[in-house]
Design goal:
Radius of gyration: 27 Å
Number of domains: 3
Distance between the termini: 53 Å
Strand order of the largest sheet: 3-4-2-1-5-6
Structural class: alpha/beta
CATH superfamily of the largest domain: P-loop containing nucleotide triphosphate hydrolases
CATH topology of the largest domain: Rossmann fold
Oligomer: single chain
Helix content: 25-40%
Number of helices: 16
Largest sheet: 6 strands, mixed
């Protein structure tokens, strides 16, 4: 029933012809497979630009080479007549998350199309050539809509001026709006227990307390999501298991206050307490923590890592890494070893280590000795040398993860071996990479893809805990 409804809906939609700009293919090599039943047109100038951009070790160059391999597979053993009629796109491509499989065709420019540009667009640039091709296709295919797809804002503006319908490329986005990104928490309604407490049962397993309950609200929950009552002293629990409209909850540990804290650091609000529960849980292999500056992401993560590495011996060492993108002008090459080159980028690590060691006994010498001990168990590594590595029993902290592309995020997470925990920290409102947005960031990608996996957890921190000055600056600046 559902399949037939989908076919009817797709048949009712007019079949469109999408003209792809080069930057779309360089951004997402699988873009030609993401337009469902619609057709794709590739002008000859796009193939020329792909050929010019294929050399190099950059992300764009690697994507360009992958596009060429995709096109080569499509054209294998194809005759001239088949190319002119359009090559069918495969319908079994993996990675079309949530989208209908491809059923359109890809067309190459096989003949000269005369498209007259207005006199206001002089010159023979590649963008103008693509515009001319699109205008010619509009005149040739009057029975269907021709759409130019480009990530170049100026080209889309020029297209609108000359009467060409242009769109940005959206299919690579994990979510349509960063404001609806999964937060990892859900508040319970005031009448929750009246609707869900009738057949509830509870039990204890050592120090852990579990509840099993049934009701309509359960269907909107996710495994490892935190649920809580907004009132003071209300229930705070994590969803451990879901089966239909029945859920198993486990009460969270309370890490508030220094007595119950981790490495002398106690949670100052509800979200920080939830974060420490994820960080200290040995069954959670991947944790993502989002939040603006000053919410305690790095401090909590480092404190949990030190306790589990030095006291519990759960991990052999802590590895910290991040993307090296300067906030201002680049100061040039840095001297020294890999760790010495990365040290200026790890100011957050040094700042938080000072906080974690300020209460060390023995005065200045005691703090210095503690710092040396901790630094021996904390390694700073560059992302550039992660390819081919495998981390065994390591606590890996990826700072500023919002600056990673989805492909880079996948390359890092797949480095994890047995016994390794990866913690991704970031703030999608502070993306420094020029070609990433809140919806295309690798951090957004991994949060969305790992949602509901029993060994992954996510939490968004909302309250700054640095100082009243920092809180006021975050609110007003």
């Amino acid at each position: 029933m559902k399949a037939s409804t989908t076919k009817k809906r797709r048949a009712a939609r007019p079949r469109r012809l999408f003209v792809l700009d080069t930057n779309v293919l360089m951004h997402d090599p699988a873009a030609i497979f993401r337009f469902e039943e619609h057709d794709i047109y590739l002008p000859m100038v796009v193939l020329e630009e792909l050929d010019a951009a294929k050399k190099g070790m950059s992300e764009a160059s690697r994507n360009t080479r992958q596009v060429s391999r995709f096109l080569d597979e499509l054209m294998r053993d194809a005759t001239r007549e088949q190319i002119e009629a359009g090559l069918p796109l495969p319908s079994n491509l993996s990675g079309n998350h949530g989208k209908a499989p491809s059923s359109g065709r890809v067309f190459f420019q096989t003949q000269h199309l005369a498209g007259a540009l207005p006199d206001t667009l002089p010159g023979g640039g590649n963008d103008n050539a693509i515009l001319a091709q699109t205008l010619a296709l509009q005149a040739l295919h009057t029975d269907r809509q021709v759409v130019l797809v480009s990530k170049d804002i100026n080209l889309r503006i020029k297209a609108a001026v000359v009467g060409v319908h242009a769109e940005d490329y959206f299919s690579d986005r994990s979510i349509e709006d960063a404001d609806v990104l999964y937060t990892g928490t859900k508040a319970l309604a005031e009448d929750f227990w009246e609707r869900h407490g009738k057949d509830m049962r509870s039990w204890k397993e050592g120090p852990r307390t579990f509840y099993e309950l049934t009701g309509p609200a359960v269907t909107s929950w996710t495994v490892n999501e935190f649920v809580y009552e907004p009132r003071t002293g209300g229930l705070e629990a994590i969803v451990r298991k879901l089966q239909g409209n029945t859920a198993t909850l486990e009460l969270v540990r309370d890490f508030r206050g220094e007595r119950h804290g981790v490495w002398g650091i106690g949670a100052r609000n509800r979200e920080q307490n939830f974060a420490l529960n994820l960080l200290m849980d040995p069954e959670i292999d991947f944790v993502s923590i989002l939040g603006p500056a000053g919410t305690g992401k790095t401090l909590l993560t480092l404190a949990a890592g030190l306790v589990q590495t030095l006291e519990h011996n759960r991990y052999a060492e802590i590895i910290m890494t991040r993307v090296t993108i300067p906030l201002g002008e680049d100061i040039g090459f840095l001297p020294g070893t890999e760790e010495e080159k990365m040290e200026p980028w790890m100011g957050a690590l040094m700042d938080n280590l000072e906080v974690l060691t300020q209460s060390a006994e023995g005065g200045t010498w005691g703090r210095a000795a503690t710092n040396d001990l901790l630094r021996n168990r904390i390694k700073i590594r560059s992302l550039n040398f992660m390819r081919g590595r495998t981390f065994l029993n390591r606590y890996v902290i990826l700072d500023e993860a919002q600056n990673l592309t989805p492909k880079q995020m996948k390359a890092l997470v797949t480095r994890a071996g047995p016994g390794t925990k990866i913690v991704c920290l970031g703030n999608i409102a502070q993306i420094d990479t020029p070609y990433l947005t809140e919806t295309t960031s690798g951090l957004t990608f991994v949060v969305t893809r790992f949602q509901g996996w029993p060994h992954a957890g996510h939490i968004t921190l909302v309250r700054g805990e640095r100082s009243r000055l920092a809180d006021h600056a975050s609110d007003t600046l």
